[in-house]
Description:
The complex is a heterodimer of chains A (610) and B (342). Chain A has 17 helices and 2 strands. Chain A has 610 residues and is mainly α.
Amino acid sequence: METKLKTTTKVNVDHEEHHEEHHELGFIRKYIFSEDHKIIAKQFLITGIFWAVVGGLFSSLFRIQLGFPDLDLSALSPIIGNWLTPQGKIDAEVYLALITMHGTIMVFFVLTAGLSGTFSNFLIPLQVGARDMASGFLNMLSYWFFFLSSIVMFISIFVEGGPASGGWTIYPPLSALPQAVSGSGLGMTFWLISMAFFIVSALLGALNYITTVINLRTEGMTFFRMPLTIWAFFVTAILGVLSFPVLLSAALLLIMDRSFGTSFYLSDIYIAGEALANEGGSAILFQHLFWFLGHPEVYIVILPALGIASEVIATCSRKPIFGYKFMVYSILAIGGLSFVVWAHHMFISGMNPFLGSVFTVLTLIIAVPSAIKAFNYIATLWRGNIIFTPAMLFSIGLVSTFISGGVTGIFLGNSALDINLHDTYFVVAHFHIVMGVSAFFGLFAGVYHWFPKMFGRMMNNGLGYIHFWLTFIGSYLVFFPLHYIGMAGFPRRYYSFSTFQAGNIESFVDLNVFVSYAALITFAAQFILLFNFFYSMFRGKKASENPWRSNTLEWTTPVNPGHGNWVGPIPKVERWAYDYSKTGSKEDFIPQNIPYSKTPESNLPDDDQH
Amino acid sequence: MNLILFISAILFLLIIFQLFRSSELLAITDKEKKFSSFNDKLNNLNAIGGIIFLLLLIVGLVWYSVAEYDNYVLPIASEHGHVTERLFWVTTAVTAFVFIVTQIVMFYFAYKYKFSEKRKAQFYPENIKLELIWTIIPAIVLTVLIGWGLIVWGEITGPPPEDPEVIEVVGYQFAWASRYPGKDNKLGSYNYKLIDVDNIVGIDFTDSASFDDFMPREIHVPKGKPVLFKIRSRDVIHSVYMPYMRSQMNAVPGMPTQFWFVPTKTTEEIREETGNPDFNYEILCNKICGRAHFSMKHTVIVQEEYEYLEWKKSQKPWIEKNPEYLSKIQVKNNFQKLSLRD
């Protein structure tokens, strides 16, 4: 850390000599309570990495339980002693806590804060041509609320009764009644407090992203010249602003039910030998509120990943992204529709079947813009000149998994088919591939691609390739078999299938062992990335200003941009972001800040209209 | 065995290390190359890797889907199960086609258009006609699938045919209970405040319809007749899931739900079909409900109608089997009006 900090400081000092309006900041204001979007992005990234490791460890533990239910884990008892039964097996309630925390951590702390927090923060000012976010102070608060939220969530793992264990969707009454499961005691209280802070963080971040994109674009950066990354982050932020408050209200009502005796979600309950006084509440109400966030949330997770893939695929194919305008319209359509599909999570919740019909129609409409995006990525590869950087490989992998996971959505979105597939492993396979793996691939692509801009050094390509192939093949081996297990009627969130009679259980014992091996190996492969990341931060090859020969504005900044990003005036934008391999041009890329007047040889008749 | 594993792990790590070292060196030597850290051979290898992956994916998918068909496709034991299954396989055909074609095209393009010094990428930013084609065709296909699905869904969730067998199914941590309406074909009313150790579903005996209600240990249903489950929960959300019947509905405290189906295979028949003489249909809990969620199940026995009717006749009302509960209740007006003592 020391070395890196010193180099950055030095560059910052150099840069600030040119800028009288900046005064030298102390270490704390510069690296800890920083208002520089680039530092905040790195803070989100590092915290996200920490959570990804925790989330991955949890999944390894429950995969061990599912694959090797008879294994004696007593050897681990110094670390996780109170999670084990006397026989050295993972306790049944701990199992539920593990899946709950795995879901919460991965969806919110890694793929929302870690992905959006990192790349929206890092790229929005750099790519729209702004010195920083609209409000550096709110941006700083956004990270520190996330940090606070992280601390509370982390502590919840160790509180009495264990962390929340009602599934990441925390449906009441299970999550409302400590009598129902021990994780619904103190652990759940911590979960709710943590999520409240998380939502504050997400809102502060999102408001900043929206304001910055609308107000701080540099001269010439019209909306239709913005790179697709920015479009994706922009729409993601809007989704966050509109949907996270609903989760907050859902959580607040749940807090009231838990602690103040209200009956928003509770009614007619007899538990632990006692009939509760609550009457008139609706358990379904919570599901409506939760999924009103929950569904946009999956697009909050996947859109930034798709945005990153758009940028990387265009750059590394040396071709303009195919159908830029259709890509933008697709993002907007997905964003809009994502608000009216939530109840497809609730087809068999007992809500009116007619409502189910409406949501089936709306859900399958959203498949169209998603399909357009996938086709456009493939068309971008056509007649490209493809350079397989690790980022490019992960982007192609993303398109592959986005399709594999996307098509199974056509089953689950169709209410008639959902009857039998709901809450089975088929669902687990679907959403892990389409939003888990794809979004992680987007995150990886982003890290590999923008590492040189973040740290001024290159990551190691060889390790990147190994990391990609192990992760890509591993992910397919982990999640594809789960479709079959789901079709055979295996419910998710089962601690053990030893009492199970459906199907030919024996044949799936082998498959579960196989999946567990694949999961453990794939998780282990992530340490190649971690090594590469931290090693390259200090010892990687020094990066050039524009190592990928890319068009977007961030590559016009110095190798280690200081606070304020550009030395001298902010470049003016003269064209869209995708003039790669333009016919007639000598180079295979023309950065956004090069005016048409300098490229007469490659100009097209309607170029000035772009 | 362990030794072999250990040695191969070490070898694997060594390979990774070597690759890491060599690409570090390469990165230093190819400074004159324009694209940072670009290496032609590795680029080709990655392109070939895509093709190998593609082959493995398709071969693996086809092989497993064919070889294990009998394991992952459960026999269908309800009328609507055949209908949804048809929709399922048509959807599978459509999506598998799209999936395989797009993967082939993508990895083929990635291979074919891998970097070459001799070529330049073609500047080809858009083609409105193509965009419209791949907007409209998926839209049409989806419309067909949705339309079909909605018709099926409407039938399944619509009102049951006349005169179904009504059975109350109640979920609680961590078991299921069932209640039959008895001779009068009417389920007596219930109240969750009446639940206790004996009266586990809270039958309300102020309702005279309750007196002939019986609660068997297992659910029995007749083959070929519509069966209507009246579903509720005592504590948290559960879900009545019967994979062989292709049926599922949540059990929600405070909000009764229902699901109807027509069983088509008796337990005897399915035992023969699966070759498992101990086989039983089960209701599985399919909504996370706490510690023993995974073992919360209930046996369902499908019988020929005449067997079912005989079984039903032999069942004694719950109140007859729990005479001590009677003493808790004050009897008035020839069993017509009853009230609780306390």
